[in-house]
Amino acid sequence: MTTVVHRSRIGSLTLAGMLAAVLVASGLTAPARAAIPLPHEDPFYRYDGATPLAEVPPGTVLKTRPVTVGVPGSGVGVVPATQLLYRTQDQQRRPSVTVTTVVNPTGPVNGGLVGYLSFYDALGDKCSPSYTLRGGDPGQDNAELAYAETALVLALAAQGYAVTVPDFEGTDLHWVAGHESGWSSLDAIRATESYLGMGRGQKVGLFGYSGGSIAGEWASELAPSYAPELNLIGAAVGGLPVHLAHNLDYVNGSQAWSGVIPAVLVSLGRAFGIPVAKFTNRYGKQVMAEVQDQCIGSFNGNYPGLRVEQLVKRKYRPFLKVRPFARTINKLIMGSAPGHPELPMFMGVGNHDGTGDDVMIVKDVQALAHQYCSQGVPVQLRVYDGAAHTEAGLQFFPEAMAFLGQRFAGLPFAGNCAEVPEGNSLAPLKVRKKRAQQQHHHHQHRQEHTSFN
After folding, report:
1. Strand locations in 217-318 (E)
2. How far, in Å, CA of 419 to CA of 408, rounded?
3. CA–CA distance from 7 to each of 72, 127, 252 (Å)?
4. pLDDT given for residue 146 in this prediction
5. What phi, psi does 235 have (nearest 5°)?
6. Are 356 and 286 members of one domain?
7. Helices 282-291 and 260-272 sit at what angle, rounded to 10 degrees?
8. Radius of gyration over alpha carbons of the chain, in Å?
9. What are the residues whose beta carbons fall under 8 Å from the beta carbon of 368, sequence distance 6 or more?
10. Is 34 contained in some domain?
């Protein structure tokens, strides 16, 4: 029987307790109701306007509806909120739509807006935050992670912030698609500001851990070119997958984290249009079919010791040399967009084993922080010694909230750039030019043809 090693749930259970405490302290309880429809079954998630979507500006609100936020799986919410369907774009810059959930402040209103970026890490929409925040059921394997996120969102609302929580993977679930995640997050802020009637100088903070750090980091580096009108006053991002090639080497054959490998293959195929089936073997196709509609709580840990080489055909086993994947991974190296963030950044990562937190790599995060420091970005980097990924998150969350609170208050920020080491090289993978490959094979064919005459 296969041993299943799931992500540590200590942090999830702690935050689940926080969720219960927030609801009880607020007197917010309600009986369970009928099941909430999944996003793909809910017409609210579909654009049905007369104007072609390509002609609608990014960040435009297309639909609204009042909702309530409550315990995932309960089928009911209790904290007032609003959902917005808005226009954005996918990884290939095609016009698309997605939903953000705008949660009203439940504490003394402080005027701040926080973009909370979820670590839902999903290939199926049962874990989309717009669904779970309303009390939708993500399934037993994902419930504790959903509890944790609801607790974090409500904790921010209790501090007096308006909180916008986008489904930044889009309706097609493009997990780890960095640019799409960043664009969707920035467009969610545009939509939220428009809906709430906020002024042009509205202060906005970004908060994301793990999968949410993908959206938060890419939003930070894309904002100067994509949404320069937004007043982003700080980004707190932790557990960052800076260079996916390095992360693959780290988790390849891992007992706890190798389940992310087939899931990322599925997602890259979707987001970038890579014909993944061309490269995978029979077992690879089987595993990808198993995870194609799952979330990280379900697929991670289900394939202990799995290696990418087991999923692809023999000739593609030097996986990082396969041209479409190498090119895609290079596009997703954090810090590779033209320019750089123009806001203070708080970055965190665990150091469990001397390399990283079992999935994210300390020296990669150091390298990104060092790069931004050299570009004049004020950065505070925290390395949580001895902490695996979930435990590092537990330390990151309160520090991230404190960091954002100070930025909203206008307190000075110096960071610790002088202490940040250079870290690893973030150089892109070498990609052989397609034309050169074709010419090589053509020349080789001509030689073979000549030798037979």
Report:
1. 231-238
2. 25
3. 19, 16, 16
4. 97
5. -130, 125
6. no
7. 80
8. 22
9. 217, 240, 242, 334, 335, 347, 423, 426
10. no
Task: Tell me how many domains the chain contains.
Answer: 2
Compute CA 267 distance to the chain's CA centroid, rounded to the nearest angstrom.
12
Q: Residue 19 — very low, low, confident or very high, per pLDDT cuts 50/70/90?
A: low
CA–CA separation, 118 and 257 (whole Å):
19
Q: How many Å is the maximal CA-CA distance in the chain?
A: 89
- pLDDT digit string, tens, across residues 354-413: 999 999 999 999 999 999 999 999 999 999 999 999 999 999 999 999 999 999 999 999
E strand or H helix that includes residue 80: strand 79-89
Same domain for 392 and 300: no
Tokens of 371: 């790069």
CA dihedral 430, 433, 434, 437 (to 10 degrees): -90
Please give the residue range of the domain that contains residue 233. 39-245+330-419
Q: CATH number of the domain at 163, please.
A: 3.40.50.1820
How many whole angstroms separate alpha carbon 401 and alpha carbon 407? 10
Domain annotation covers residue 219: yes
**How many whole angstroms separate alpha carbon 58 and alpha carbon 439?**
42
- Amino acid in position 168: F
Tokens of 80: 């007032």
Which residue is associated with the tokens 């607020």? Answer: 26
24 burial via Cβ count (<10 Å: 0-12, 13-18, 19+) = exposed
**Whole-number Å distance between alpha carbons of 348 and 395:** 9
CATH of the domain at 277: 1.10.260.130
Q: Tell whether 313 is covered by a domain.
A: yes
| Whole-prediction pTM | 0.91
CB 146 within 8 A of CB 72: yes
